[in-house]
Description:
This protein is of the alpha+beta class. It starts with a helix and ends in a 7-residue tail after the last helix. It has helices at residues 2-20, 23-27, 45-58, 143-146, 154-162, 177-190, and strands at residues 30-37, 42-44, 61-74, 77-92, 95-112, 115-132. It contains six helices and six strands; from the N terminus they run ααββαββββααα.
Amino acid sequence: xxxxxxxxxxxxxxxxxxxxxxxxxxxxxxxxxxxxxxxxxxxxxxxxxxxxxxxxxxxxxxxxxxxxxxxxxxxxxxxxxxxxxxxxxxxxxxxxxxxxxxxxxxxxxxxxxxxxxxxxxxxxxxxxxxxxxxxxxxxxxxxxxxxxxxxxxxxxxxxxxxxxxxxxxxxxxxxxxxxxxxxxxxxxxxxxxxxxx
Length: 197
């Protein structure tokens, strides 16, 4: 139970410190070799912090809200799944919009020198929506572009593409081969069969 509480604290600190732009404390939730996977970024934690800070300084608004967690611990490894919502505000065709995506953070944790921290964060994108901030605004989406993205995060990907990000198009969603492969990697991680997730 103590390990689960310590892991949950790391998960919560990730969301608070990242969204507050507290980059030094945010760095502490990761092991130095940690990696982040997101629609708009895939790579090492130090680069993730750098590009997140750059976006923060340009006014990119991406926020996170957490729900319940399920945490499996096996010796010095763990998998934490945490319900979450990603909220991003951006202009789409000169109309201020909010896009909200609900899913789970699927985190590979390791305990090193008695410190639990993230080795890999892979979100699972389950459902999303896009709304103009002004409910009276008329927003017309490009149906062809929208249809190019997986259902679990197609509106989020649409917005991020429109503001200049290159979006990864094969992220895990609620069902399908991508999420099944992720679950298999998680089982291998907990069994100690994988040197890295």
